[in-house]
Amino acid sequence: MTVTDAPAQATFTSTDPRTGEVVGTHPVHTAADVDAAVARAAEAAAWWAGLGFDGRRTLLAQWRRALVRGLDALARIVVAETGKPFDDARLELVLAIDHLDWAAKHAEKTLGRRSVSSGLLMANQAATLEYAPLGVVGVIGPWNYPVFTPMGSIAYALAAGNAVVFKPSELTPGVGVALADSLAEIAGGRPLFQVVTGFGDTGAALCRSGVAKIAFTGSTATAKRVMAACAETLTPVLMECGGKDALIVDGDADLDAAADAAVWGGMSNAGQTCVGVERVYVVDTVAQEFTDRVVAKTRALQAGREFGPMTMESQSAVVKGQIDDALAKGATALVGGAGSADARLVEPVVLAEVPEDSTAVTEETFGPLLVVNRVPDVDEAVRRANATGYGLGATVFSKERGAEIAARLRCGMVSVNSVISFAGIPALPFGGVGDSGFGRIHGEDGLREFTRSQAVARQRFALPIAVTSFRRTSAGMGALLGLVRVLRGR
Ligand code: NDP
């Protein structure tokens, strides 16, 4: 077949959710395209691993500086493909750059070879441990934070010495391509970080391509499909899925700060945040005062100004369904209500006294809808906060008992007296439990996630008693058992 006979590559477009205008056109990469990208990445991975920590740190620092220089330009692509406000996009980039910096600077200390104690019984051995790169890591990302979220895997995987093939969401392919281009320039065109674009099939092909690991961020439902595809080749997976995060307001909380956090945590990015605040449990004694503040702060917001439209058009119907279900079950609408989610630009909604079996309480909303429920005390708040299958993040407002309440929450991250702060602290691992997934990005755990431990025991001298040899004698075993009785038997 000649080049002219070859079937034309299928393409798709990304569009601006605010206007419907086409932002960019991208190829629908086939399984063969994905396999070829992974094969190229394998060569780059060998080069990259050979650079060592110093070489990688230097190159990643160059990339970090380039991202800072190009911050506004990349933020404009984020805005065009997601519809979020410009400063939200810039904030997302600032945080991603900070993570890149941390990952590059801490890789050697976290992963480099170190000696560990060989123990009394094996005192003749020198024991060392290091964390070696896996090779090629496949990253599948969502559209809601199309830079910050996948960079939690990309930056940490690269810093750990891997090459990356990234499949961005079909809604934000332009962001993924721009991100990869910015590193390609610095890496002299080496395919260290490539992007494959397309729909779910392209992501599924990445799962089956023989990559050493898949780092997936997206919905719980898709995570199950990804895991099933990865099971075919025993490809390990890291799963960052959805959440139904609660904010608990204790009786001694700073109510203005708590209300501010609830409204920002629930409404920013139009509620399309995996660790966004979706449920508030406020203790009775302060419920009225707190709720009044939430209502006032929410009424001051304007959809289209403080936050944009639903990035994914079909999401408005999900939000609408949850509002209708809650109202039908007896909830009270304090701000907005039926009709607030009739368009792609959803108006902010606050619902109170929402029955706990409503979908607004049990299912991820991903829209600017806040549920505020009164509880008699903190114990009940904790019980309800923990009563979902999800377990991603949480927020606690309490002057005296913040840490104590945080420790009782079944989730991966908690912010006390602020909201979503854990995501901006690179040293803190990020990830959930239950339907929110498993594995960790960020921090030392996030670096180790993209490595395999390499344990080496080197014999320094032979012991007088050989017990792991066919030369073993009963006298030798008797001496060993005597030693164990003295050392471990007491
Ligand atoms: P989806 O689950 O719809 O998609 C996630 C990614 O998976 C996309 O790139 C998608 O491609 C791809 N994909 C779809 N089908 C398959 C398949 N069969 N095999 C492999 N890949 C596939 O999630 P959204 O993009 O809608 O993102 C929103 C979700 O992400 C929310 O649930 C949110 O809570 C969660 N999230 C979790 C975070 C966390 O860190 N825990 C952070 C941010 C978001 P395509 O878009 O082309 O269909």
UniProtKB/TrEMBL annotation:
One of its GO terms (molecular function) is oxidoreductase activity, acting on the aldehyde or oxo group of donors, NAD or NADP as acceptor. It comes from the Bacteria. Residues 1-20 are annotated as: Disordered. The keyword ATP-binding does not apply. The keyword Cell membrane does not apply. Residues 9-456 form the Aldehyde dehydrogenase domain. CDD domains: ALDH_DDALDH. Keywords: Oxidoreductase. The active site is at residues 240, 274. Pfam families: Aldedh. One of its GO terms (biological process) is aldehyde metabolic process. InterPro entries: Ald_DH/histidinol_DH, Ald_DH_C, Ald_DH_CS_GLU, Ald_DH_N, Aldehyde_DH_dom, Aldehyde_DH_NAD(P). Belongs to the aldehyde dehydrogenase family. This is Aldehyde dehydrogenase. It comes from Pseudonocardia hydrocarbonoxydans.
